[in-house]
Amino acid sequence: MRKMAKRSYLALILLFLYTPIVVLIVQSFNAGKSRAKWEGFSFRWYAELLKDQAIMKALYVTLSIAVIAAIAATILGTLAAIGIHAMRKRPQSIMMTMTNLPMTMPDIVTGISLMILFTFSKIERGYMTMLLAHITFNTPYVILSVLPKLKQMNKHTYEAALDLGASPSYALLHVILPEISAGVITGFLLAFTLSLDDFVISYFTTSPMVQNLSTLIYSKARIGIEPTLNALSALMFLALLVLLLIVNRRASNTAKA
Amino acid sequence: MRKSLTCILLLLLVICLPLASLAEEVVNVYNWEDYISQDALDKFTQETGITVNMMNFTTNEDMLVKVRNSPSSFDVVFPSDYCIERMVSENLLAPIDFNNVPNFQYIDKNFVKPTYDPTGEYSVPYMWGTVGILYNKTMVTEPVDSWGILFDTKYRNNVFMIDSIRDCLGVTLKYLGYSMNTRDPLQLNAAKQLLIKQKKDGIVKAYQVDETKDKMVSGEAALALVWSGDAQYAIDLNPDLAYVVPKEGSNIWVDGMVIPKEAKNKANAEKFIDFMSRPDIAKINCEEIWYSSPNTGAIDLMGDTYKNNLTMNPTQDIIDRCEFFNDIQDFIQIYNAMWLEIKSA
Amino acid sequence: MSQNLSIPSWLVWVFVGGLVGFIVLGILSVKRSNGIKRSFFASPYTLWMVLFTVVPVLLIAYYSFTDTTGAFTLDNFKNFWDSNYSVNQIYAQMGPQYSVLIQPGTVNIDILVYSLWMALLCTAICLALGYPAAYFMADREIKLGSTLVVLFIIPMWMNFLLRTVAWMTLLEDQGLINTLLKTLGFHSAQLMYNDGAVLLGMVYNFLPFMVFPIYTSLTKMDGKLLEAAQDLGANRLHTFWRVTAPLSIPGVISGITMVFMPSVTTFFIPRILGGGNTMMFGDLIENRFLTEGNWNVGSALSLIMMVLILISLSILRKADPEGEGGGIV
After folding, report:
1. Least packed by Cβ within 10 Å: which of B4, B152, B156, C83?
2. What is the ipTM for the molecules in this complex?
3. Which letter, b or e, does each residue of B48-69 get, where b requires 16 or more Cβ atoms within 10 Å of its Cβ?
4. Which residues of A touch C151 (CB under 8 A)?
């Protein structure tokens, strides 16, 4: 009985979380434009989605910025984490404060402060400024993913490698990196996810000509959701499911192996 | 080593793609939402080969800040009269070379060299219209002829207002018998108090801009403050709706096409403006967005359907009781403060 | 803010290319010299942070304390406290007949208080709904543990704007819920354009951020502690109150932190679901910058917001000094 109660509570919460998504997906097959009336099953909006220049462009912008920013943040952040880990107490805590700062700042303040920076230094806003902003807010998360792994790593492995005749770069690439690779990958994924979903910071650091998915949706949102966006949501959801299934299968395969 | 090289190459490729799109001819247009026909844009691209990048804004004030902050982002902008006045005074616009805009000959003489652009060299009129009340005849049984009805508690939660400072304050000032361009704080204060009361009484369902017309079509409210084109669009889709310019008078406005001084594609911008002023294209736009056209050629082409439509072609006495917005310069600070007070009431 | 010269994007590309080159050279040069100190690896990052985090914050501080001409002034903060401060000064200059209009305004404070209140409500609701959810998820009886976690994660990964706007479809007057009510014979209700809708949107967006930290701290808990408590004679309620709850506090604190802060500063939810009827602090800041173009007052407001957040964070940190909370990673 108690089990049932617990299960139903969880089910209710999940229902709450999924209802809008289900609505979006169902609506994507609605042949008509109206949001409340069902006018028949159709793939029409999926076709229109592919033809919609604005959405396709925004999708490209979102994905490319997420990839580039995540890669850049991962490189910058991993190097930084290694560096910070090797610092003494004082400089280390200064660096940690500086790293924590952007995460404690509300995103609207981050976005506005960057907007002020770009306008003040007369940098034209657009793709580049949005990219710079994304790298900026992603890197601290990478550092926070990699540092714990560095702390877990045996302190003496690096020195042992040097003693055994490895050059510092060899030691870095072949000794340290493999140990922290889990953290690096987590950091990369985290940065990628954050960039994909970002709205507020992108909103302030881009020009109206370069839109990512979130800013595009925002500009169309006042009028209510467009049917093509429903189709996009459905496809995103599908992609997510597939991705998670693959990851799950991989995880269970390595567990079996 | 090879792995990292391929990675770097892929990375460069991804980065280079956005640069590749710079090669084609484009014109960056910053326009109101739902304010131009996609058909007209497609024809433009077909005939000139220039791709149109369209960006939208919802109020003049938003647009002005964006143009100030990113002056080279846009080639053609569609501001309203008082905003053009402001942009001229802030030296944000480039003079238009009318040799490149021969279709200017079709613009009605009444719109040439207007008060907001006295030298006439910075703008080409696009559409004009009025501000009035759109109402649903099945929900409003009394005659609608005064702004007062928007403040009537009988229509609690049944009124849409425009989310725009000057439109809301303007019509309230007119209702109280003052000018829409007043700098008298006492008059402004009276208007502000009335709008705060309207909000506190729960009369306003929402402050919005482009959402209103579709929501009126689906019957979500009885009354709405709208621009004439939105009204006509809604009436077309729902014959229960009607539009009126109240007896106290209202705002008459003109939206023009301008070119920011630091536009990157000035030649393309002029071609765009010229194309939009061609009578058949102006007709296409007019028939899609339902606003009034300053283009004599287009009016001739549209014939009686245009001339007999009171919303699109108001009579002289309606025009006479309407006022243009003027740029109120620094006074906008006071308007802003009042608007915040109203919105947070 | 004259914009006669603007640095074109290609120049910025060059700058970034240079930065990348610097990093690559740094790595390669480690081969040559026998060991650059590892701590130097952090220098590109330091440079980046100074440029893109420290300097912007300093700029905000700069704009907060100056007016449009660049002169030092405290007016921006006075305008925060009394929203009619500048306006009153204009009235005073215009003449004595307008003195009746000179009144203090509380717009900024009202909006701030409203935002804090909504954030508090949202956090409370998220805690009330989220704690049981996390508890049941972590419960060993319910074996679906990790599947449930995945199910919770999936919505988070979908674009949250899309999900919020989807609520419009449900809540509108002609939306699905009202259509359902009408077919069942009830009156349609005003579900959107009010505080309730905004609160719903906020809870919807932030609930997972409350659930995860609590779940993490609950699963970290050693199951043997519970067994021990029961062996010592404690009943379920007692076990929960004395063992589970205190151990989950780091997670709760973490969850509260991750919900409260974004709630106070959220700005598009009130706009989309509140219909412009409700203005929150995030909206206010955005309005100042992008609609009014008043960077000075906007910066002052941002500064105040940052200070408030820092204060609340330090209060929360006192309750969880170890920083053990579930967090994001």
Report:
1. B4
2. 0.80
3. bebbbbbbbbbbbbbbbbbbbb
4. 14
| pLDDT tens by residue, B160-203 | 998 888 889 999 999 998 888 888 888 888 999 999 999 888 88
Q: Which residues contact A91 (CB under 8 A, 6 or more apart)?
A: C39
- Nearest CB neighbour to C56, from listed A13, A79, A114: A114
Whether residue B218 lies within 8 A of chain C, CB to CB, comes out as: yes
Nearest to C193 among B59, B206, B262 (CB): B206
- Interchain CB distance below 8 Å, B341 and C291: no
Q: Is the pLDDT of residue C1 over 50?
A: no
CA distance B185 to chain C (A): 7
Q: Would the pLDDT of B260 be above 80?
A: yes
Contact, C42 vs A84, CB < 8 A? Answer: yes
Which chain A residues contact residue B210 at CB under 8 A? 222-223
Tell me how far the alpha carbon of residue A20 is from its chain's centroid.
Answer: 21
Burial of B187 (0-12, 13-18, 19+ CB in 10 A): middle
* Bridge-based pairing state of the strands B124-136 and B223-227: antiparallel
Is residue A169 within 8 A of residue C27, CB to CB? The reply is yes
CB-CB neighbors (< 8 A) of B57 in chain A: 208
Pairing assessment for the beta strands B241-244 and B124-136 based on DSSP bridges? antiparallel
Kind and range of the H or E run holding B57: strand B51-57
Q: Above 80 in pLDDT, residue C66?
A: yes
Nearest to A122 among C7, C152, C158 (CB): C7
What is the DSSP annotation of B97-126? -GGG-GGGGGB-GGGSS-TTSTT--S-EEE
Q: How far A22 CA sits from the closest chain C CA (Å)?
A: 9
- The pLDDT assigned to B17 comes to 52
The pTM of this model reads 0.82
